[in-house]
Amino acid sequence: MTVNILLMCGGDGSEHEISLKSAKFISAKLKETPDFNVIECVIHNKHFLVDNTAGYFNDKKEFVIGDKKIKIDCVVPCIHGIPGETGDIQSFLDVLGIPFIGCGSEASRYCFNKITTKLYLDALGIPNSPFEIIPLENETFKQKAEAFFDKTGDVYVKAASQGSSVGCYHVTQKADLWPKITEAFKYSNEVVLEKTIIHRELEVAAYELNGEIVTTSPAEIIMPESTFYTFEEKYSADSKTVTTVEPKGLKEADVATIKDYARKAFIGLKLRDLSRIDFFLSEEDGILINEINTFPGATSISMFPKMLEHHGDSMKEFLAYAVRKAISKTK
Length: 331
Prior knowledge:
The protein has helices at 16-30, 88-96, 105-112, 114-124, 139-152, 174-184, 231-235, 252-268, 303-310, 315-328; strands spanning 3-10, 36-44, 47-50, 53-57, 62-65, 68-71, 74-78, 131-134, 155-159, 168-171, 191-195, 200-209, 212-215, 219-222, 242-244, 274-282, 286-293. By secondary structure, it is of the alpha+beta class.
């Protein structure tokens, strides 16, 4: 029996083009399952576009494109950033009663917002970098920001609800602090300051397969000296950053701790199906969770599929399992 899958991608946020690249990879993997029929849908300018034709959902869980009506069995929301990792699409699909893979709306929203992520991690007893919340642009919080800078001497200013290092700035001079905070507010209603951590950057794929939560051994992102992992550095063809699924010199105890924290975060933040959990490993500050991605990238340089495959699993089997699980839970 044919399973109709609506593969959503794009979105009107800063990661639109990256989402399209991920969707191309995911589409190919979904199509390796013979009974999957994949309909690719690009979200752009607040429209659902299939072959540049706008479509919509009717009250029978059908996706309508012109005269064609397709009963959708499952949605794969391959949207990085807005409106996918913000939980908006998930809420929309919940209202329609259409199954989808990935985290639910609340988990997506909580992980996309760096402030709520940190508050949850604190409640779960999982270490993360020292931070200061700046919810408003006023004198009171300017003073709080300056006091935090005085204590740490080197900070990152981050728009609270953005991904891929958008609205994120490294500040080493106090005179630059408030201007960068003002700039970050252009990307989000809240800003968070984090102490700069001298670290190795490690990532873990945490996902569900065959009824189990899998946490892979960490991979590593190795950046050139003094390079900040900007949006351009992440995705540019000229990037000097190197990635490896077999980091050198990691202690077994550190690997075990990282995997334990990843599992606790997956369960505690009520994640579902897939995630990429990013860590800092620091001689001074230990092991810290940096951020959680609820629909990680799947481009040619993305780490989630590499880590999953290196663990011995396949993206084809993972996606097929996630789709069939989502469908079965709505019956």
